[in-house]
Amino acid sequence: MDIDSIFSDFDANVVKSIMVGTTIDFDKVKNVHAFKSAAVHCCLNGPVGVGKSTNFPGITEEIKLKELYEGRLSNKMWRNFCATVGEFLKRSFPDEVSTSQQHKLFGDVWPIHDNE
């Protein structure tokens, strides 16, 4: 699945609106494109800890999620944000979600399938 193709309707304003009600402050995100790419990747393909160096699709270098955020970013904050992103993806991109690794393995996106 091409994660970048999901972003045609998933711009910075959508990311900002998704963050309402989460503990993540949009103004502290250093790289919105990388942050949303990582969130979509985690929802569709499985979680990555915020301190683990990872290569995400659409991002040229290996990064740690906590390096994309000014201030403290915990795994719990990331998980809660991804749950909100996952709900958005299910509403907006049901076909892409239905073919994702997490949906095939667990019947839903991460971390939502963990909560059921």
Describe the protein in words:
The protein has 116 residues and is mainly α. It has one domain. Helices cover 47% and strands 0% of the residues. The chain has six helices and no strands. Helix 3 crosses helix 4. The longest helix has 18 residues. It is globular and about 35 Å long. The two termini are 25 Å apart.
Produce a short descriptive summary.
The protein is mainly alpha-helical.
Question: Which short descriptors sum up this protein?
Answer:
116 residues; mainly alpha; 47% helix; globular
Low-confidence stretches: none
Described by strand count, sense and barrel closure, the largest sheet is:
none
> If you average the pLDDT, what whole number results?
84
Relative helix content:
40-55%
Envelope shape: globular
Helical run tally: 6
C-alpha termini separation: 25 Å
Structural class: mainly alpha
Number of folding domains? 1
Order of helices and strands: HHHHHH
Estimated share of beta-strand residues: under 5%
Radius of gyration: 13 Å
Number of strands: 0
